[in-house]
Every structure is written in structure tokens, then in C-alpha cells.
Recover the amino acids of this structure.
């Protein structure tokens, strides 16, 4: 039925939310042998689980991956520039990271909540806020950097390539990306600029390209959705 937000205990530091068939899981303080911090799962009822993302990526997995597969910490998550000019991503943070969840709205038709991250581990910002809204349109993510040195936000976007059996069709332009497997399509829309890297990274489910969204602002909105491709329409 959906229409809920569920937090585990602080020892497990995960958040689950479900509404209108859309289901997400957020890891707030990752064990890097298995996870990365950030949005690691977006499912929709009746769609292939790996189409958007089913588990995060990690640079030091406690499970086997083919030797030729690239490894790194990654999830659907924001990043920002440090004083040194590097990009720090939420997926690389764990120890020293604090989080707070604020419930904005909960019903069977719409769920909205905000995750506020803070801690001395941040460089270039004092923290970051992510507001998630789940409804019939999919999942909307509103990212806001807190006290950034530079008003520029980044966002990591894994895009499915193959699970060894199925191969995706990937298309993208500056502000949108689409991944399809058979009759199922995953869509990403944003006002930021999307670039897609050539290298593939592996998790438990398969190989993914890693895209990056950039915006010359301290806030960014990303909209995720899935739909079935109609017969006779490509």
C-alpha cells in the first residue's frame, strides 16, 4: 500500500520510504565493505530491480567482483567543492557523520521528508540537506548545501549498463537521461548539466556507467521516475 517513512535504529542508520509503488532506501552512515552513504535503492513495483539502482557501490567490497570491474564508493548523492578544489561526495563519508530526519508530509498519495547531515567530516560546507518527495510522479530530490564555500553542487548518478544477461539502452542530453531494459524505462530529469563517464563500475547487481550532474547553485532538484514503454513506440 505504501505511504510511509520508516527509520531503523541509530545502530543500523537506514531510512525506508514507500508511496504509490515507489520505494527507496537511504544509508546514512555506511559500512564501506558493503555500502556507501546516500540513496542506494530506488525500486518501483513491477519493474526490474536493477533498472535504477538496487544497492550502492563500494570501493572495498566484502564480496567478489570481476577483476576488470572498476570499484569506488557511489550512490545517488550530492557533492561539493573543498578548499583544495576537490569534490567531496556524501557517499565517501561515514565516521563523524550525523543525520536528522524531519517528516514533512505522510499519506497514501504523497510522502515527503528531509534528511539533514552534519559533522566535522565535511569540507567546504557545514552540511547538506536532502528533501525526498514520493508520489505518483516518482521520486523528487531537492539538494541544498549548507554554508558552502562555493555555490556549486554536484550529484552522482549511476546508470545501468548490464547485469550479464540484459543490456540497457542509454540516451541522455544536458538535462535528462533515460535507461531502458526491454519494455521498462527509467527517466532522470534535472535543471543541472549531465555528463556520463565511459568507465563502468560494479555492484552486486551488475555494471553501471557513472554520470555526474553539475549546477552553479547551492541547490539542485533531480526527478526520478519509471514507466512502461508502449507497444510500437521506441
Amino acid at each position: 500500500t505504501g505511504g510511509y517513512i520508516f527509520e531503523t535504529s541509530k545502530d543500523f542508520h537506514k531510512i525506508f520510504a514507500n508511496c504509490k509503488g515507489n520505494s527507496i532506501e537511504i544509508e546514512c552512515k555506511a559500512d564501506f565493505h558493503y555500502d556507501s552513504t546516500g540513496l542506494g535503492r530506488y525500486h518501483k513495483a513491477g519493474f526490474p530491480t536493477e533498472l535504477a539502482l538496487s544497492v550502492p557501490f563500494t570501493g572495498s567490497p566484502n564480496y567478489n567482483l570481476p577483476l576488470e570491474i572498476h570499484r569506488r564508493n557511489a550512490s545517488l548523492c550530492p557533492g561539493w567543492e573543498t578548499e583544495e578544489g576537490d569534490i567531496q561526495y556524501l557517499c565517501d563519508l561515514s565516521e563523524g557523520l550525523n543525520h536528522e530526519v524531519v517528516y514533512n508530509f505522510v499519506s497514501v498519495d504523497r510522502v515527503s521528508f528531509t534528511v539533514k547531515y552534519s559533522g566535522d567530516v565535511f569540507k567546504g560546507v557545514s552540511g547538506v540537506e536532502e528533501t525526498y518527495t514520493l508520489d505518483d510522479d516518482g521520486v523528487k530530490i531537492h539538494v541544498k548545501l549548507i554554508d558552502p564555500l562555493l555555490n556549486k553542487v554536484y550529484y552522482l548518478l549511476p546508470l545501468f549498463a548490464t547485469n550479464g544477461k540484459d543490456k540497457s539502452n542509454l540516451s541522455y542530453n544536458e538535462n535528462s537521461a533515460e535507461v531502458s531494459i526491454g519494455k521498462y524505462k527509467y527517466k532522470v530529469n534535472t535543471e543541472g548539466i549531465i555528463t556520463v563517464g565511459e568507465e563502468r563500475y560494479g555492484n552486486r547487481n551488475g555494471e553501471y556507467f557513472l554520470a555526474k550532474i553539475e549546477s552553479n547553485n547551492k541547490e539542485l532538484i533531480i526527478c526520478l521516475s519509471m514507466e512502461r514503454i508502449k507497444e510500437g513506440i521506441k
